[in-house]
Amino acid sequence: MVICFHVAGSGNFPFSASDRRHVRGSRFAGPSAVLRAVRERTLPRCLSSRHRPRKVRAMRIATRTNRHPHDDAPDTAADFERLVRLPEGPERRALRDDLVRAWLPMSERIAVRFRGRGEALEDLYQVAAVGLVKAVDHYDPTRGAAFEAYAVPTVTGEIKRHFRDHLWALHVPRRVQDLRNRVRVASKELSATVPGRPPTVAEIAAYTELSESEVRTGMEALECFSVLSLEAELPRTDGYALADTVGGADPGFDLIVDRAAVSPCLRALPERERTILYLRFFGGMTQSRIARQLGISQMHVSRLLSACCARVREELDVDEEPSDGELLADAC
What we know:
Blueprint: E1 2-7, E2 11-12, H1 17-23, H2 31-39, E3 56-61, H3 77-85, H4 90-112, H5 121-138, H6 147-166, H7 174-193, H8 201-208, H9 212-221, H10 252-267, H11 271-281, H12 287-294, H13 298-316, H14 324-331
Antiparallel strand pairs: 1-2, 1-3
């Protein structure tokens, strides 16, 4: 407990250096003795009359009595030294497991700091435990540092690595992730200094010492950490899902490509062959009707159709040969 003195209405009691040395003497060692001396006007002569208070109030400044959350850290220094000396075997594995169990509460406390970021707390406990095992395996007591000083950044780094590698909905390069973090922190801090509006790109760039292009890249990456499900219902709709607003692939695009590729080949055919192809695939006529209209045999029409399709396929040099009807219908 620490005692200080306050003069009512005049601020702190102005003890000089000699006053403090006198009060620290045996006569005024206790706070009750000091207060009694003040009431009886028996203060030391070294105190000038203008410094004598009208009223002195002793204020108790409470020291910390509650235990710090890390005060329960186990004393495992000797166990770690023994772990280093033991060879591989059942005894070393048992001691290693005991050390992990002893420090498990610390790793769980670190994991709690990261809750509410899209990952279940139980999963964070598991990731923190993995980091703790790595810390136990790689800790070297001969370096002189306490285990906790080595384990805390190791466990924290393992959790951050888990968020970086497994919780991003889209694959984002590490550099862009770093830009995202810097932009996010800067936006949060600048929002407190610029009330009523979000900070601009130029303000964030000046605050983070980044270019405006890098700030925009970081802002775009803010939306890449999580995505919205296509089955999510849109607001102010009656069961209308986001997937209902997404269009499908238009088959007309492939048709345009086929037409552009086949058209030169069809124009290179003789006029009679082009007529036969048109009547067969676009007029819907049978080979017999085409033969009667052109004054040739049905077998001749069949051979001409096969030769035309083979010539077109050869010029296109396609790997997968479509049927004759699909090839020519798509072309026109």
